[in-house]
Here is the input.
Amino acid sequence: MTNQAFDASRHLTQVDGRAYLEVKWRLLWLRTEHPEAVLRTELVEHRDGFALFKATASLPSGGEATGWGSEAVDEFQDYLEAAETKALGRALAALGYGTQFCQDFSSCPAEPEPVADAPVVGIRENTEKKRLKSVTATEAQVNAIHAIARQVYSWDEASLEEHCREVFGRTSQELTKRQASQFIDDLKAKRLTA
Here is the structure.
C-alpha cells in the first residue's frame, strides 16, 4: 500500500447534474491503494448484439466483490467494451471505490436510471437518449434477466416468466426499467446465497 492517498474529488465529472467518478479513476484509485489487486472479467454471454460480463475484483487482504454489466449494440456501438467496463465499475464500487458517486447503489425511486459506465465518447448524449426513451425495460435489461436466470439458476423461459409474474405481476417484457433493474439485482443477490 502506498503512502499517497487518492483524491477522488479531483476526478469527478458531472452527469445529469450529479457528481460521477468514471471507472478509469476507480481503477487508478484501486491501483494506488492496492497495486497487487486482481481483476478478472468473464464474457458470460454474447449474442445478437448483446453482451453480459461478470467482473471480480480481489484485494490482497481478502476482500472481493463481483459486478455484472450488460449492454446492447443499439445503445452503445462499442457494447462489448461498455459491458465489461460497467461490470468492472460495479465490482469496484462494491469494494468502496467510488460507491458514493454511483447511482447503482441507490434505492431512492425518484432518481433517474443509473449511468452506464462505458469507455466511449458521448456518454452524456447516450444518457440523455436513454432518459428520453419510454419507461419500459430496455432490450439489454430483458436480455440480462434471461441470461442471469439461465446462468445462475438454470431456469428455462417458462420458469423465469412464472417467477417474474409472481414478483411483479407481469412478464419480463412488460417490466419497467426500474423493475427490471430491481429484478436483475434480486437475481444476482439470490445467486450469492443459493
Remarks:
- The chain has two domains: 13-126, 134-194.
- The first strand starts at residue 13 and ends at 15.
- The longest helix spans residues 177-193.
